[in-house]
Amino acid sequence: MGDQPQAPYDEADLIFHNGEIVTVAEPPTAEAVAVKNGIIVFVGDHAAALDRWRGPATQVRDLEGRALLPGFIDAHGHLGGIGLQATIANLLADPDGDVTDIASLQQKLRDWADTPVGRASEWIVGFGYDDAVLEEGVHPTRDDLDEVSTERPVLAIHQSFHLGAVNSLGLAALGYTPDSDDPDGGVIRRREDVEAPPHGEPNGVLEETAFSPASAAAMAGLPESARLGLFGKGAESAASFGFTTVQEGGTTLENLDILRAIAAAVPFEIDVVAYARADESTAAVLNRDTIGDPVEAGPKYVNGVRAAGVKMYLDGSPQGRTAWLTKPYAKPPAGKPDDYCGYPTIKDDAVVLTQVRTAYERGWQVLAHVNGDASIDQFIGAVRAATEEAGPGDRRTVAIHAQTARHDQINDFALLGIIPSFFSMHTYYWGDWYRKTVLGEERAANISPARWALERRMIYTSHHDAPVALPNSIAILSSQVTRRTRTDKVVLGPDQCVSALDAVRSITINAAHQYFEQDTKGSIEVGKLADLVILSANPVTVAPEEIQHIKVAETIKAGRTIHPAIASRTVPHGAVRTPPVDYQWHCNC
């Protein structure tokens, strides 16, 4: 037989057209995008796309005026925590919940205790209360939670996930008594009106390392089916907000094994980048393969999961007033002196340096939770020393949150190649709390200082840190552009507002760069993965105050729609080993 005549086209699987296409590249817009085998094969004119790429089996998608953007990339979050958020009692305030006071918090916990998961749980547990917006303006105490139950331990987790409150049975389960010392890096708050030597009777409120055992016990007490389903629920929720790459930021080594085992049974439909706890990794002196490939080897996913490095924890939460500052809080928590500045998670600078040095020696990327400027100073010092020892390199070390970074610290980031990843939604959720209670007006105006980073021509990213906030991509964009606070509706530091396009870049191409994946993700360009999101409107062209109303219509991973038609992830019986009884989900958010 002679050669068959070649078709005048290469048949694409999908062609998108008739919408506002934001490429986050050059040129910045296009009329059409063609996709074949999960890869973008054409970006350009509509007529050329049809002429060159439309065949009998091509699905031509009319965007009907909606916007097509690169799939969103989660620069920092906790995949299991997103699932947890959807599993336990919702104690969030408006607009993500309806808890307004301690009475409504108590009722939410009671209602959850009577659900199938709640009845099977050892603890009654809920997440998301915020003393900054509760009518009483205080944390719930053991007495408040005793009204929920005197038969089971109760845990109410603060929205920061750095504090929480337990009932009397919870304190007993944890072994916290008047004789208990505060752990290093944490505080057991005490009753002020009850004399009980040597330290005072615990009032139920726990901070940082004193709180961590409570969350670990409560999570371990969830029914096994709920624990196994956390990652799958998290993936579904993230996809509904347009994310095609997510993070499990700060997992234990045991839970990293479980994440990989779950993915081996049912591969994730979105990409999951995991970071192991730096303290565990350093202490174990692990080899490269245990955490993952060194950064110079390039990203490699197995069943949708890759372990990219380690996560450090150097301080706490500004909204919880446990972050470590160089200057005192505007209003210290009850019982604290006027010069209270919070406290470090790791007091010994040598330990911090050891964690950074170990990661650099093994080629692991480093992410560090640093909220207060004192903890940022500690981190900068360790990175500078470790870099001098290891020599220059493209490590893309990340300062997570960096809420109170000073201008001089942004300069240090630029000099050391540290990428700031801001939790910009703080401007919305806690902007008023920062102004009035945490920092005062002057310091509050410069939280999440993205404009300073842009002035230095730096790459920065922005994240949701779920479960601290919902994995709401649109809120990430809106909060950077408007910096409008939740209650008083003021613009918090207008000089730190950024353009909508810069905000989009922070969760697309910049986040891809943070992950060493800028060659395959983060923009709509030929040769990149067809990771895409369709929005009801274009955030780059609508009025800034209208961004918050945009909806995610569809999420596409490698050319396949995963939201709203994401398939339910079911784990075949026996395909994944049963987690041990002490399986725990940790979130030092």
Structural class: alpha/beta
- CA(first)-CA(last) distance: 66 Å
The profile of the biggest β sheet is: 8 strands, mixed
Mean pLDDT: 91
Radius of gyration: 24 Å
Strand content: 15-25%
Q: Helical residue percent?
A: 25-40%
Poorly predicted regions are: 1-7, 566-583
Summed up, the helix count is: 22
Number of strands: 22
List the helices and strands and how they pair.
Layout: E1 14-22, E2 29-36, E3 39-44, H1 46-53, E4 59-62, E5 67-70, E6 72-73, H2 79-85, E7 89-90, H3 102-113, H4 116-120, E8 124-129, H5 142-146, E9 154-158, E10 163-166, H6 168-174, E11 186-190, E12 202-207, H7 208-220, H8 224-228, H9 230-240, E13 243-251, H10 253-265, E14 271-277, H11 278-284, H12 288-291, E15 305-313, H13 349-362, E16 365-370, H14 373-390, E17 398-401, H15 407-416, E18 419-422, H16 426-429, H17 431-438, H18 441-444, H19 450-455, E19 461-462, H20 473-482, H21 500-506, H22 509-514, E20 532-535, E21 552-557, E22 560-563
Parallel strand pairs: 1-4, 1-5, 6-13, 7-8, 8-9, 13-14, 14-15, 15-16, 16-17, 17-18, 18-19
Antiparallel strand pairs: 1-2, 2-3, 5-20, 9-10, 10-12, 11-12, 20-21, 21-22
Structure notes:
By secondary structure, the chain is α/β, with parallel strands linked by helices. Helices cover 31% and strands 20% of the residues. It is built from 22 helices and 22 strands. Strands 1, 2, 3, 4, 5, 20, 21 and 22 form an eight-stranded mixed beta sheet that branches. It has an eight-stranded parallel beta sheet with strand order 6-13-14-15-16-17-18-19. Strands 7-8-9-10-12-11 form a six-stranded mixed beta sheet, with helices on both faces. Strand 17 (398-401), helix 15 (407-416) and strand 18 (419-422) form a beta-alpha-beta unit. Helix 2 (79-85) crosses helix 9. The radius of gyration is 24 Å and the shape is globular. It starts with 13 loop residues before the first strand and ends in a 26-residue tail after the last strand. Mean pLDDT is 91; it is low at 1-7 and 566-583.
